[in-house]
Design goal:
The longest helix has 19 residues. Strands 3-2-1-4-5 form a five-stranded parallel sheet, with helices on both faces. The protein is α/β, with parallel strands linked by helices. Strand 1, helix 1 and strand 2 form a beta-alpha-beta unit. Its cofactor is Mg(2+).
Length: about 160
């Protein structure tokens, strides 16, 4: 069974993330969405909320593609998380050259820690390349419409959170 790990904070999950998830399902039998706890980033949504959003967004996609998709919170090293979930592949989404420079360093470090785990880069569709969770949250906080960048369910969660 080919198992991949797609890690991130997903705060919140965007249509760019969903695009990478969809494309990754063509490569593996099981896709684990590693939801980083990363308390230092001060997420807008709790870990439980982010996991629930991912699960809700991926149900139909899993049914459609036949690939098992599961959300898995983690707070340890990425390579240790990959081992924990039995992943042979780490999937990373790329948006721009700046992403590549950081990711290139990460691959080198992960390979030094465990050379049996491969990293695969997937480019986001051109229309999704500018989407970043950080920017989505900033636009939403300032009253902008983010419905082009997130699913209706996530948009509703953002609006609800900002009204609190």
């Amino acid at each position: 069974m080919r198992v991949a790990l797609y890690p991130g904070t997903f705060d919140p999950i965007t249509i760019g993330h969903v695009d990478i998830i969809r494309r990754a399902t063509a490569l593996v039998d099981k896709l684990v969405i590693g939801v980083a706890i990363n308390r230092d980033k001060g997420p807008m949504f709790s870990l439980e909320e982010r996991v629930a959003m991912i699960e809700a967004e991926c149900v139909a996609l899993s049914d459609e593609t036949g690939t098992e998709i599961v959300a898995h919170p983690f707070e340890n090293l990425l390579i240790d998380c990959a081992r924990d979930v039995g992943a042979q592949i780490i999937v990373r989404g790329l948006r721009a050259v700046a992403d590549f420079e950081y990711e290139y360093q990460m691959v080198g470090m992960n390979r030094a820690l465990d050379s049996s785990v491969e990293t695969v880069f997937l480019m986001a569709e051109a229309r999704h390349q500018a989407i970043a969770s950080k920017l989505v949250k900033e636009i939403a906080r300032l009253g902008g419409d983010v419905s082009k960048f997130v699913t209706p369910r996530v948009n509703e969660a953002l609006l609800q959170r900002l009204s609190e």
